[in-house]
Amino acid sequence: MITVKGKKVVIIGGSSGIGKALAKRFVQEEATVYLVSRTEAKLQKAKEEIGGNTFILPMNMLDETSVNDVFKQVGAFDFMSFSAVNDETKLMSQIKDMTTDLANRGMEKFWGTFNCCRAAANHINKDGSIVVTSSMAIDRPSKNGASIMNAASAAVNVFAKALAREIAPVRVNIIAPGVVSTGVWTEKEKESFAEWAKNTLPVAHLGTAEELAYTYFNALTNPYMTGTTITVDGGLTLI
């Protein structure tokens, strides 16, 4: 594994969930961490919790100017993780009732990933790496009205694989999570998912942000891995 002490890490979605858990790991390894997300107040709270050599940069991942400005401020860097979400759980709709506006919003995950990767490509060091977030739904699509979000995750997956070839030797990998207990769900939903996971998943528990962050860290720091999709879903694709 690559030593990350003194390296610069950009974490898109760093104010909560997987991103915050990953930031904690990098800070433990004495890296310089840039937490990037929409809301400055949430970023400041995360910074205070994480400590270390941490900086915050508010950003709208869907605004090209906002994204470019953030990466100009960061300058040359070594690692980027993208795990940000944009109210994805509120975009469920059966195709018969899906509006064009909702369908366009459902692709925001791809466009956010694209905007950040495009900007990052102009600043990342040649021995650096990027990890983006798809979903295990690329192999086991949902039937509960998430078709457009599944499509966005598939687009992220293929885009990142192509990028791994285009910007080599910079490495680009993809994490495909299953259901994870993060802030995108309400407490009631988390309780329901926890019971479901206990009775359904081979690992018999719901995934945590820390468990996912472990995989992001390994993918970012493995110098012999690129263009790879890593599914971390507790065995959901097996059932």
Principal-axes shape call? globular
Helical/strand content category: alpha/beta
Number of helical stretches of at least 4 residues: 8
Q: What is the CATH architecture annotation?
A: 3-Layer(aba) Sandwich
Strand content: 15-25%
**What fold name goes in the CATH topology slot?**
Rossmann fold
Q: What is the tally of beta strands?
A: 9
**CATH-level-4 superfamily name:** NAD(P)-binding Rossmann-like Domain
- In the CATH hierarchy, what is the class? Alpha Beta
What is the chain-wise order of helices and strands?
EHEHEHEHHEHEEHEHE
Radius of gyration: 17 Å
In angstroms, what separates the terminal alpha carbons?
A: 33 Å
How much helicity do the residues have?
40-55%
Largest sheet: 7 strands, parallel
Strand order of the largest sheet: 3-2-1-4-5-6-9
The poorly predicted ranges are none
Q: How many separate domains make up the residues?
A: 1
Q: If you average the pLDDT, what whole number results? A: 95
Task: Write up this protein.
This protein is an alpha/beta fold and 239 residues long. It has one domain: 3-Layer(aba) Sandwich (Rossmann fold), CATH 3.40.50. It has helices at residues 17-28, 40-50, 64-74, 100-106, 108-121, 147-166, 187-200, 209-221; strands at 8-12, 32-37, 54-58, 77-82, 124-133, 171-177, 180-181, 207-208, 229-232. The strands form 2 sheets. It has a 7-stranded parallel beta sheet, with helices on both faces. It has a two-stranded parallel ribbon with strand order 7-8. Strand 5, helix 6 (147-166) and strand 6 form a beta-alpha-beta unit. Helix 3 (64-74) runs parallel beside helix 5 (108-121). The chain is globular and about 45 Å long.
